[in-house]
């Protein structure tokens, strides 16, 4: 069975990677869908977010990475995926994910599995990683090495 793990991944964090690995432990194939939430402004361009997700997941067997444009449910249909996997850290995440899960299910019948974030990473978010990087802090413990290197390159201008 194939599942889609969608997100904007700006940038991908160790928490995302943990969810992707755990999704792969449940499903035969995982497609990571790199999209955009229209209400957010991004640090990394779509092509760079895609590249970083590809680099960070390159060593995980059965995981592929594709850009997401348009509706997630249509992407799932086009990929032949029957399930969506999302991670949730705390209450508000789950509230939002449950309403999206219900809407997506209502549209095409696709199911959503919400994995509780591992305790090790439950305080890590892309938003906080961006904030640390912008203010000159060290975000390296919270992101894959390839992202830490990219953030270090960008630090002077952002
Ligand atoms: O990293 P994020 O912000 O949690 O990612 C959000 C994303 C890209 C997964 C979400 O915005 C999404 O599913 N976008 C696709 C458009 C869509 O299907 N919207 C309706 C959802 S009910």
Task: Give me some keywords for this one.
Rossmann fold, 5-stranded parallel β-sheet, 6 helices, 44% helix, binds 4'-phosphopantetheine
Task: Explain what the structure shows.
The protein is of the alpha/beta class. The protein has helices at 14-26, 46-57, 72-79, 91-108, 126-134, 145-154, and strands spanning 2-7, 29-34, 63-67, 83-88, 111-116. The chain has a single domain (2-122), classed as Rossmann fold (3-Layer(aba) Sandwich). The chain is globular and about 45 Å long. Bound molecules: 4'-phosphopantetheine. The site of 4'-phosphopantetheine has 10 residues, from strand 1 and helix 4.
What is the CA-CA span between the terminal residues? 41 Å
What's the overall average pLDDT, rounded?
A: 94
Q: Which sequence of SSEs, written as H and E, runs from N to C?
A: EHEHEHEHEHH
Strand fraction: 15-25%
How many DSSP E strands?
A: 5
Number of domains: 1
The main β sheet shows up as: 5 strands, parallel
The strand line-up of the biggest sheet is: 3-2-1-4-5
Annotated CATH topology: Rossmann fold
What's the CATH class, please?
Answer: Alpha Beta
Poorly predicted runs are none
The SS-based structural class is: alpha/beta
**Considering DSSP H and I runs of 4 or more, what fraction of the residues is helical?**
40-55%
Question: What's the helix count?
Answer: 6
CATH 4th-level superfamily: HUPs
- The CATH architecture designation is 3-Layer(aba) Sandwich
Output the radius of gyration: 15 Å
Q: Tell me the overall shape.
A: globular
Spell out which ligands are present.
Answer: 4'-phosphopantetheine
């Amino acid at each position: 069975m194939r599942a889609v793990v969608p997100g904007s991944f700006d940038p991908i964090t160790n928490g995302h990677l943990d969810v992707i690995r755990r999704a792969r432990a449940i499903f035969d194939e995982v497609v990571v869908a790199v999209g955009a939430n229209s209400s957010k402004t991004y640090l990394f361009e779509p092509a760079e977010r895609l590249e970083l997700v590809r680099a960070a997941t390159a060593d995980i067997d059965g995981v592929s990475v594709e850009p997401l444009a348009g509706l997630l449910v249509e992407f799932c249909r086009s990929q032949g995926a029957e399930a969506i996997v999302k991670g949730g850290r705390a209450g508000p995440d789950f509230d939002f994910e449950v309403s999206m899960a219900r809407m997506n299910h209502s549209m095409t019948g696709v199911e959503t599995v919400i994995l509780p974030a591992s305790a090790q990473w439950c305080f890590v978010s892309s938003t906080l990683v961006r904030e640390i990087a912008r203010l000159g802090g060290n975000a390296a413990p919270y992101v894959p090495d390839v992202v830490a290197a990219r953030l270090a390159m960008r630090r002077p201008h952002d």
